[in-house]
Amino acid sequence: MHVRDLPVSATVREQYRASGIEELYPPQAAAVEAGVTRGENVVAAIPTASGKTLIAELAMLTADGPALYIVPLRALAREKYESFAALPGVSVGISTGDFDSPAEALGEEDVVVATAEKVDSAIRNGASWVEALACVVVDEVHLLGRARRGPTLEITLATLQRRAPGVQIVALSATVDNPDAIAAWLDAELVESTWRPVSLRRGVYVDGDVDFDDGSTLAVDAPPPGPAGDRDTEVTAALVADTVDDGGQCLAFVRSRREAESLAARLAEEPALRDRYGDSGDADPEGSHDTDPPGPRLAERVRERGGTETGRRLAAAVESGVGFHHAGLASDHRALVESAYRDRTLGVICATPTLAAGVNVPARRVVVRDLERYTGEEMTPLPTLEVHQMCGRAGRPHLDPYGEAILVAADPAAVRERYVDAGPEAIESQLTEREALRTHVLSVVASGFADSKRGVLNLLDATFFAFQSPDVDLSGLVDGVAATLSEMGLLAVGGATNAEGATADTGTLGGALSATDLGATVSRQYVRPETGARLVDAIRTIESMSDENVTPLTALGAVCATPDTRGTYLGNRERAAIYRYATRHAAEFTTAPDEADDFESWLCAVKLARILLEWTQGADREALVDQYRIGPGDLESHVERATWLLGAADALADTLNAETSVFEAAREELDASADADAERRRRP
Ligand code: ADP
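== ATP-dependent DNA helicase Hel308 ==
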């Protein structure tokens, strides 16, 4: 099918042509045949780089009204926003920031790009633009199988279909084992294909050679014999150097942040990389840099963006054209690594698996050095789908003749069977995970979607879970969850609604359900019920504390002890120091160690509260990051979460008519430090 035959405006067709799109790729043509431009629901389960964006655009451009594009990650939202905004005559909005604003202005846009959490939050806050939607595109719909994100996504889709009846749903998926189930659930046509614009061969390293699945082999310059870990690193280095020598770019996946940084340091010593990107180098792979080697210039830009230990290690590695990428990296460093790689001033990125699901960074060769991950208790193999996503990054359309993905492992036979020969896993709903169900039952009642157990069950009936497990009795589960929510004072059974909680009659759940004022606030503020309950306890404790003990540390300690706070790590050496700090400030905290469910997480909450307090007191980012051994990216996300949770705590205090303003005050301090930090960083 040719672009000229598409039912979109002539200017859009022209733009497609200008960007090199003439004939539709086969999966795209199949999607058009399946009715994606005629308002039909479509699930497209196709590989990376097979042109999903165009399928989404065709749906959104031909829809009879505004469209919503749901992304799983914020970093992707920005990328998609930019790509849609470049379409002629299309206005685009983006919604990824505050968790709790209805963002009414988005109703003006043709296309809104938002994370699933943001859409869920908009629905809970009664945003009217949701009802006007004509088309919803869900990117990476296979994330339905993830513990936290999955339930949010399926409830959001089920609700959207109710709120905007007749809305077209287009779901884009990686190749998974059961796309037919997803399609049947969404009442959609299935487009399933393994077609790729650039061919991909996958291989496993065995004793000096890579054996590819197409029968070919590649000899690897034999690394010295040594312990398995070192050997895998040396094999990885040889494979990367080989591609870079050849003018290509690589991604190397490892299991942890620390491994990403140490592999980067090792690769930075490779002559192939130093020659091409480093001080002795004189050209980039395409010859577009005339004289200056790109590495040192990029290193300078890394240094300009902050001097933490992580930043210094990054600067040192990029001197040789090697970057690393993980969640602990400061967000501006992460963005710089991504853009430098796209500009080809980096030859390789050493990354944790999150990069595989993230932004667009294709490579000629992908090397997966670590196929297991530490889960806190033991090493477990990575899911097949995840490894396939990494492999799928190999082969850049228009740039590489082919892509190669190579797995390096101690047990090549097992790895071949699991990741090369076998298909990916099936996607399974995670909705009945108790915590997820609690969150969503409260939200459907609080947002006025259901006012009885029957109403809740009706909505749950439209979820992927109900579709996959028609025989499971959701009714019993809902009873249990409603009873717990009622004990927490968030849900009233039988109609009682007051700020003090439900006068619950938990025995007769056939009756009316309504959110208490607290429950409504919890839902609107987008915190988990458990977080809401803990904050309510903290607020009540604060009311009984004497004024001089209620300090910013009190507020920070309370929000850091909720399950919506991301945990932090406590090193052995700092444990005693944090305990001493906690003892010194015991009167300011709302919980004592002996009241905590778990001493270790209590100490972690104290540590986090201390970091945030020192941050508001003007400690600089470098000092905090180095002293508490967290990544600069962690500091950013802790500050952001705490800001959100302090706002939620303040709203709950209002609902309870509590006098305290300590949460609002702490939130203002965090905002002020964020402004001061941005100002410091703007200065040369
Ligand atoms: P993905 O499926 O990973 O989302 P993209 O939609 O980003 O893939 O497409 C990958 C690349 O292929 C983009 O650079 C895009 O411009 C290009 N592309 C998409 N469709 C076509 C086409 N029909 N002809 C030529 N290039 C195309």
